[in-house]
Amino acid sequence: MVLCLPAVSPIQASSPQEPASALSSPPFEVRDPEIRARWERGWRLEQQRDFQASNRDFEEITTLAPEISHVYWRIARNHLRATQQLPMADEAGRREGFAQVLRWAERGSARDPGCAECTLYEFIGLASLTRMEGTVRSARSARRMKELIERTLELGPTHTDGDWNHELANAYFAAGIFYKVVPDSRLAKWLLGARGDRERSLEYYRKAFELRSNRVEFRLTLGLALVCQGQQGGEEAQIEEGLSLLRSVASLDDHLATDPIYRDHAARLAADPGRACDYSGEEWRRAEGR
Hints:
Helix 10 runs antiparallel to helix 11 (216-233) and helix 11 (216-233) runs parallel beside helix 13. The chain is globular, with a radius of gyration of 19 Å. It has 290 residues and is mostly helical. The protein is built from 14 helices and two strands, in the order H-H-H-H-H-H-H-E-E-H-H-H-H-H-H-H.
């Protein structure tokens, strides 16, 4: 049994993510001027999408003040962004990048078990590695992924980047993906320690959408889930709600580098809703060379 998790890509920004005030007000208490200077430079480099250089400053903060858990998941998130920029064909580079996401997020959780963003990026790193490594890791990792995403939602991430990115919305979206792709069977429960639940998945997609309705990927995914479930259950109103969401994706602004791709996919799926249940953004992109 293979757990085929699609990519969770909440934060590959194509525009600045945080208000300028974040520079002078790090999201943690800081008195040491060197830590403040490292934070400000790392933040600027992050906005410029120079994630490797940004992480050099952030990693130095973990040496100077290892108790600041925020910086660990921020490093993990930078590794995720950098890895998302690699060609799909660079499997070794992507595998190592996702391993770094997991490694740094785990370090943050070890420092602060109450760090919700740390457990979120643990989940994303582990899910990304699982997607690449196949059957054995799927069975071994599914229980841990379930624990991580449920712990994340229990803790409740609070960090936001401007008016478009919210880590709690990302957590809901990740949970929706997880409960969609895990098979809904007793065998899956026995082998993986988790069982799929399409209704629960849809509920999480709605929660993500309610928090950040201006996200292309959130609107696309919720629309597809509604169309697919509506088709399977013969619910015309649900199908129409989903199609309306797919059509409305065209009106959204770009926030992520992938938004133009998913906007195109939404338009094509709205015109051909019979493909809603079988859609995979990653497979379509691979086939298109995007």
